[in-house]
Structures are given as structure tokens and as C-alpha cells.
């Protein structure tokens, strides 16, 4: 994800220039020969190094949508994917599926979290717990003793 198409295109141009001056395919960018073989043959036949059109589905969200989603999640930690879906639709008029939201969150490094559910202690429980802590200790064998 860290490479832009322009970055890749510049790298491919450099690789093709290296091959044209007699460099070996296995020496280009210290990668396996098979990695440079296909772009090299495409460059020989078409004279271009750009990616061909792919059959993959186009992206549903734009980078602005991704940034909005990321910022929203950072500000509202416990929002569900369904709530994020509605929020993105209302704020940016972008319709995306819940699994797409889920995948984006994983791509950003956010994992599912649930708030910790703890039963609050009553004053009586606190007193009894404090009394237990004061009267019990750990003996030399590592066991609890009175």
C-alpha cells in the first residue's frame, strides 16, 4: 500500500533503462528474475511500462472517504460497522457495504473491541475486600495464610 502508481512507474522506467544498458534481469532491484521478466517483455513489445487495465473491481471509497472514516473511528472508538456505514452515507454520500467498512478498519489497524463489563462494587463489598486484604497474607511457601 505504500507505493503510488507514479512511484511504481518511475521504478519500472529505471529498471528498463538498466536492462537496456546490459544489466541482468536478476540484478534489477535485487529481486527474482521472474519479477522483472513480464514488465521487460511488455516493454519490448509495446514500449510502455504502465500497468495494463485490470479486471478487479474499482475502489468504492476514495482517499478522502478513507481519511474521514479513519478520523471518525479515532474520535468515536466504539462505533459499529453498521453505524459507520450510515455515517459515511450521510456525511459523504458514499454507499459502502458493512464488510467493506470492516476491511477498511482492519487495513487501518483497528481491531474489534468491546467495552469491559464490570459489576461495580457496593460499599459493603469494598469493606469486605479491604478486610480480606488486611487479614490475609502470603506465607513462606507461597500459599495464602491468615
UniProtKB/TrEMBL annotation:
One of its GO terms (molecular function) is DNA binding. Residues 35-64 are annotated as: Disordered. Residues 67-133 form the Transposase Tc1-like domain. SUPFAM superfamilies: Homeodomain-like. GO terms for biological process: DNA integration; DNA transposition. This is Transposase Tc1-like domain-containing protein.
Amino acid at each position: 500500500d505504500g507505493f503510488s502508481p507514479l512511484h511504481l512507474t518511475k521504478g519500472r522506467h529505471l529498471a528498463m533503462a538498466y536492462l537496456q544498458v546490459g544489466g541482468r534481469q536478476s540484478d534489477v532491484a535485487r529481486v527474482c528474475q521472474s519479477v522483472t521478466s513480464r514488465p521487460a517483455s511488455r516493454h519490448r513489445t509495446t514500449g510502455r511500462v504502465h500497468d495494463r487495465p485490470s479486471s478487479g473491481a474499482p475502489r468504492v471509497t476514495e482517499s478522502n472517504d478513507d481519511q474521514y472514516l479513519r478520523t471518525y473511528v479515532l474520535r468515536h472508538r466504539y462505533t459499529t460497522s453498521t453505524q459507520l456505514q450510515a455515517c459515511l452515507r450521510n456525511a459523504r454520500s458514499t454507499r459502502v457495504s458493512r464488510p467493506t467498512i470492516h476491511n477498511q478498519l482492519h487495513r487501518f489497524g483497528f481491531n474489534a473491541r468491546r467495552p469491559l463489563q464490570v459489576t461495580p462494587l457496593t460499599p459493603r463489598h469494598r469493606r469486605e475486600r479491604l478486610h480480606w486484604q488486611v487479614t490475609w497474607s502470603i506465607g513462606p511457601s507461597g500459599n495464602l495464610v491468615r
